[in-house]
Fold each of these.
Amino acid sequence: QSYCHRLQHDMYFLTSTSRLNEQVVDKIVLQLNRVYPQILTNEEAEKFRNPKASLHTRLSDLLKHLQKKGDRHCQEFYRALQINAEQLFNDLPSRKILKTPDPTEIDTDKEQYMLNDRGPVFFLACFSMAAGLALFWYCCNSEMQVIGRARRILGFSPIIIGRHVRNICMLYLEDMSRD
């Protein structure tokens, strides 16, 4: 993807309010004016640094001007943006597209959010339900040997299961063994 296409893609993001402030835009314009080869002439730099015009208008005009000039000029703009506003440069939509070139690849940030949006209580509830079903299935088997094993496991688990729950389970196992 050419730098001109990337700049066209990022234009709305860059010109939206409070993304770039006056100082950063001025630094970018000055860098484009002073870099070799000179991207902006002195007259163009003065035009894009004119404090009488609004920042949005100046920035929009600058981006359109760079797109007309060609790919090299747009590349130098991205370099100046990276030097003067690195965090904003990393947040550009075109940069995010470049980071995940395969459209079938899973975006790990979104996937991580999708997996973690329920919280620890949901995990504990699911785990408790699975453990309870496993214990119920293990204890309700009709073989006597299984009940004896379950009684031994429950007898040595005051830490895992509370005393009242353990006593109820032990009584239930004793009733099952009598039948």
Amino acid sequence: MATFPEYIAQNEERDGVRFSWNVWPSSRLEATRMVVPVAALFTPLRERSDLPPIQYEPVLCSRATCRAVLNPLCQVDYRAKLWACNFCYQRNQFPPSYAGISEVNQPAELLPHFSTIEYVVQRGPQMPLVFLYVVDTCMEDEDLQALKESLQMSLSLLPPTALVGLITFGRMVQVHELGCEGISKSYVFRGTKDLNAKQLQDMLGLTKPSAAQGRGPQTSQQPLSNRRWREMGWPCGICLG
């Protein structure tokens, strides 16, 4: 029988996911007392031969500010057909298509050995994949060169239509706008200054300007943030070219 560290290592190797903790907080109070927040490192596009893509919509938390996906860490009441979100602890009703679930008849997303699942979502616009590289440049020249080679290799493994973004940080944080041909353009932020999310969105042009600013209302049906992503990102195939 495998030890607990060996069990965790096997799960990480199988799923391509590593968490900052090997247990999940059981209550909101316990979550607030954690010194290190729960975080995870994912391996994008990792293939699993034992689990093909799921051909139905994921079940989402009903709380508008959460919308987390049903997963094996959620608490499930099979008799009442309810599940409690493990992110916000909201109690949710299962959709009618899950009427037949039980402890011996569970959907794939509740099975512990399927902690990562790829869904094929049929509705909504088909957006390209977005990969954001966040690179620490405070290193020796030899290490920096090795990092550049690793980044080039990882780009070759991405779909050609994927959008690629780049953020580098040292003494300054630079958000690079890769969509500018012929010139190098980036937004530079001082590393010692704290900025909230709203300030960053305004500086990067990710928020919709008001009519009072003299720009008029947005006429495009595409959200401004999506269009800015396309401007700031760059297709992977062009990056490699």
Amino acid sequence: IAHGYQEEVVGIMGENFTFPVQIDKKVAEIVWKKNKHKVAEWEYQSEPTYYGSLSSRSILMENGSLTIVNLENDDAGIYELVYWDYVKEHQLNFVLVVLDSLPKPEINCSTSDGELVLNCTANFQGSLNYTWKLGNNPHRYRNQKLSIPVKNVDITTNATCIIKYSQTERSSEISLIQCLP
């Protein structure tokens, strides 16, 4: 990796975030810095040491990965991993962006041309996965919109929209009877 390369990584407020690092060599020493200040350090055969604002909220593993527990806005910044593999020093740089927590999705519905159309929206900075679930039907529909022929609509059924980003999900539910004119 060329020097000066920075990988952008994204975490969500309130979630646990782990930097995508996997060192597969034998390592003698690991140092993590945030904005040039040391936050975690590990040397062969000793316990990790933590510094600063992350000291009570981070976990450093011997494979180099650093996990931040319960991500906060202030955790955003430039992180640098330096490790020594007995031969030479390696450096990886990350820019951590912290996004707001996920909103509850909004569902609106309309009927046109004999179809009931359900639309799920959520205002979020990242690209979301949308899934619909109808009543107890195990089948999931992976779209932002769901169309059902009006003649097939069971008014006792609830429709649930689930949005997912990273490890986090939020959902909202609507009763189909609300949707019919």
Amino acid sequence: QSYCHRLQHDMYFLTSTSRLNEQVVDKIVLQLNRVYPQILTNEEAEKFRNPKASLHTRLSDLLKHLQKKGDRHCQEFYRALQINAEQLFNDLPSRKILKTPDPTEIDTDKEQYMLNDRGPVFFLACFSMAAGLALVWYCWNSETQVTGRARRILGFSPIIIGRHVRNICMLYLEDMSRN
């Protein structure tokens, strides 16, 4: 994929609010102005560093200008972005596509966020509720009429072992307690 196509793909991500601040954009423009071969002329650099225009407008104009200039200019923009905002460079949508060649592969960063968005308190509450329901179900289950030590020993057996194995173990323990 060419750098111009990548830049077109990343344009919305880069121009969305609070992705790039003014200082980073100014550093990128200055680097593009000073790099050899010179990507931006002095007049173009001043235009894209004009504080009177909004950051969103300046950045959009810069990206469109670089796309018109060609692939080499877009490549230098990506190099400047990597130098001045490495974390943002690594989070670019086109970089994630390059990192995951299999489109059916799960995006682990997104999956991790989706699994962890509730926090540990939510997990503990759900686990406690499930354990409580298992205990209530076991204690008042009409199939198991076992009393004494067997019930205390295998209190959490529905979670660990199956019903048939549990019944056999409980009958054995009941017989052992009678003897």
